[in-house]
Amino acid sequence: MKLFVGLGNPGKQYEGTRHNMGYMAVDKFMELVHADFDRSGFKGVYGIVKNPAFPEPIVVLKPETFMNLSGESVAECVSFFKIELEDIVVVYDDMAIAEGQIRLRLDGSSGGHKGIQNIIDKLGTSKIKRIRIGIGEPQYDSIDFVLGKPSNESMPLIEEATDNAAKALRDIELRGFQYAMNLYNSIKKEEQK
Question: Using an 8 Å Cβ cutoff, are 44 and 115 in contact?
Fold first, then answer.
């Protein structure tokens, strides 16, 4: 069984903000595979994808602990379903990546992102696969920036990036993480416009 996690903050006031790109990407993945977030538990909402095209079921989780405590939700889910660490993929926003681009990584530090850092702390390893969605460098206070909504000019880039993240999740399940990483990390910003 695999676990796909989209990071964000719950509540209407955070919908569509830069910090909720993980939520947006897993929402699109669930649409892509015709599944729903139809269960509550593990301090979040989740759905289980059983698609004949996929080799195993996938738990898709949106923690509702607020970003900085995302690891509490993930650790509970991992423990309950006995999911192996190598079968986890976390999707989240990243200021170090240009707006509209995505980057897949096998592991590494949190880069200062408190959501992924909490997951690393709770699971006791940085060997967590991830899809980082670029939101670009803030032009002002970083907290206001990540909790703000993208401008109208930015929205096509954000839509493209979250679409690509959803497709990358699908391709990870169909063809493996390395395949998806090679494919989506090679997409340049110009191609996404």
Answer: no
**Residue 118 Cα distances to 68, 80, 110, 170, 175, angstroms:** 6, 19, 9, 25, 29
pLDDT at 177 over 80: yes
At 30 the three-state DSSP class reads helix
- pTM (predicted TM-score): 0.93
Task: Compute φ and ψ for 92, nearest 5 degrees.
Answer: -160, 165
Class of domain 2-192: alpha beta
Query: For the chain, what are the domain ranges?
Result: 2-192
Share of the chain above pLDDT 90, in %: 80
Catalytic annotation, residues: 19
Instruction: Calculate mean pLDDT across residues 111-135.
Output: 96
